[in-house]
Amino acid sequence: MRIGVLTGGGDCPGLNPAIRAIVMRALDYGDKLIGFRQGWKGLQEAETMPLTLDLVEPIIDQGGTILESSRTNPLKSRDSILKCLATAKKLRLDALIALGGEDTLGAAHGMCAEGLNCVGVPKTMDNDLSATDYTFGFHSALAVAVDAADRLKDTARSHRRILVLEVMGRHAGWVALHTGVSSGADYILIPEIPLDLPDLIKHVKQMVKRGKHWGLVVTSEGVKRPQTGAGAKHARDEFGHEKLGGIGGFIAAEIEKGTGVDTRYVTLGHVVRGGAPTPFDRWLATRVGIKAVEMVHDGKFDHMAALKGGNIVAVPLARAVKKLKTVPRALYEEVRTLFNQ
Ligand code: F6P
Which of 145, 153, 208, 337 has a CA between 20 and 30 Å from the CA of residue 286? Predict the structure, then answer.
């Protein structure tokens, strides 16, 4: 078979191991692989690269994606859809494997309806994709964020300060929640739960009163300021997405103002998206990569390879992209009991 491969959306550790697994499994079948550069943009503009064994064999430990990525979504215009279909026809593609998050996999679902045989591979450091237990990229991002949080606690303790750590997470607070719990944070803020500044300040004051003079607060970048009207506007990228970042600074200033404790902040941003994938992410990426090729050969299109209770199974793309997987309030409340002290 002739199989195209692309990676779309934000990069994350695990993409290269997944590409490697796809290529190695497909070569086993005797397939021909065609890589598209920069996600759907590459299919649209017929920008290809060969995917060979020599190229992919050593990349299991590499972050990023050798195929490069972009947030181009072909469903945004008819012209773009037609260009993608024309490339697929010209290159005689039998199938396309799209690695991505909600946006990329939503596009794969839409392109299936246009007659392109797509199979999805879920990835995102945000872990906010439905129909899979975990996505690769999440565990690697956590490893970096927890390491940063642990380091910040050292300086917080030494200087009797509060440190606010801001991590990625636009709509879903999975990274902040897991980072906060794993680093023993004193307070965790996620986009799903409105910011309650009086409660946060009360908590810090109580902490200081009982003799703990330092603290760590972990927040998602997607946490919104309370309705003060104060400059919550962000610049937008070329696809119209807000470039988030900075809520940690606002929270730090409010804590300092409300408690009198020296408070600093760090925005981790893209740092968590880089670096070598953790062993878990290499394992997960490899397994979903292998499964995607098998799904192509089974004609299981319009599906993605998902992790379900330890098994890798095919689930409909429609189910995966219907709704973002956000943190349930009950889970947040469960964890919140730890910062009631
Ligand atoms: O991949 C998802 C994500 O990591 C979000 O958490 C974050 O807001 C966004 O990507 C940033 O993307 P970009 O690299 O396009 O700025």
Answer: 145
